[in-house]
């Protein structure tokens, strides 16, 4: 079997010493916990929004601009962090990002006005932007193509678990010790992860715990793959590829839907369904929990079809179509007469988005060489954050002047089917760009 340079290095470096079976899944576990912490820190302010809004007299538009501050930093740093991760490598780049965003999350405890919260959110967004470029790049390095969507679905499900845990944890900490403690405690979790990351993580070619058999399994579909030994694609040249535009526009159109559910669901439950902070802590975590199952199911589904002989193109897109056309259940949710029905339908929509996301993220590693994946994911993430920047103040003003969530749920329900049409137009066949 032909071997790439990285495979030969890994094979020679794993000939002796302690070996850990299925090491790639342990790596996936680290990525899962990073995403969990990422969303715990991100979710805290949305859970506290009704409480802080009453305490500090925020208007709906004030909160919209606080969310906007996060999004603008996230958009800017998604572009930069993708390139940084490609340059520094995942181990160092991810560690620096975790320190940055954990400190920013803790800084929220010392904010007392809208401007200070905007500043804290800006720095949080700047740090958190590295999570997905680093994670997708790790998956591209550690998993063969048929397992990448599942691995992505697993680590991406951490965002949902983070929302679940963060919701309950934030409500409990606030009711017991105050809102400042909630920010301090949740922000400090990143330093526990950092210790495990620095101890455990290495690139496959440098990991002494990686067995020869697993090296060969990881690289079996990559050996001799076109483009893997080519120089990096210049950043400006990425925009010349239709595949990049398909990924970027899909993220731009659908990421804001997720931001809307994450940042406004607790507020919707309080304002439209009459939930208390205690009830929000109990029930608002249900849709994100169901979404974690959707994330793994969406990733598993395309891999299952590939194992049954489906082409990469057919498997990825079939899974994406199913998830996209489940999204309008969110429209039915806002019109539902009972709160439990609304929660159930929102859970379906959030699960569908995460199943969609697991496959969309994998498009980047399906089509671009590993050395460029961080940059491509960064551009897509930046586009998604720009979409989030647009929806944040728009949502704030819609709610402030119409006092209705119906227009927002309608927007959230139609974006994925439209995005699927664009993906098919721009990426008629999913395959590596080097094969063209």
Q: Secondary-structure blueprint of this entry?
A:
Blueprint: H1 5-13, H2 23-56, H3 60-88, H4 90-107, H5 114-128, H6 131-142, H7 145-177, H8 179-200, H9 212-219, H10 242-271, H11 277-283, H12 286-307, H13 312-324, H14 329-335, H15 339-367, H16 370-402, H17 406-426
Helix pairs in contact: 1-9, 2-4, 2-5, 2-6, 2-7, 2-8, 2-10, 3-4, 3-5, 3-16, 4-5, 4-6, 4-8, 6-7, 6-16, 7-8, 7-11, 7-12, 7-15, 10-15, 10-16, 10-17, 12-13, 12-15, 13-15, 13-17, 14-15, 14-17
Give a verbal description of the structure:
Helices cover 78% and strands 0% of the residues. With 436 residues, it is mainly alpha-helical. Helix 2 packs parallel to helix 7, helix 2 packs antiparallel against helix 8 (179-200) and helix 7 (145-177) runs antiparallel to helix 11 (277-283). The chain is globular and about 60 Å long.
CATH homology group: MFS general substrate transporter like domains
Unreliable stretches covering 5 or more consecutive residues = 1-16
Q: Which class best fits the helix and strand makeup?
A: mainly alpha
- State the helical fraction: over 70%
* Helix count from the secondary structure assignment: 17
Mean pLDDT equals 89
> N-to-C SSE series?
HHHHHHHHHHHHHHHHH
How widely separated are the two ends? 24 Å
Radius of gyration: 21 Å
User: Main β-sheet, in a few words?
Assistant: none
Short description:
The chain has helices spanning 5-13, 23-56, 60-88, 90-107, 114-128, 131-142, 145-177, 179-200, 212-219, 242-271, 277-283, 286-307, 312-324, 329-335, 339-367, 370-402, 406-426. It is an all-alpha fold and 436 residues long.
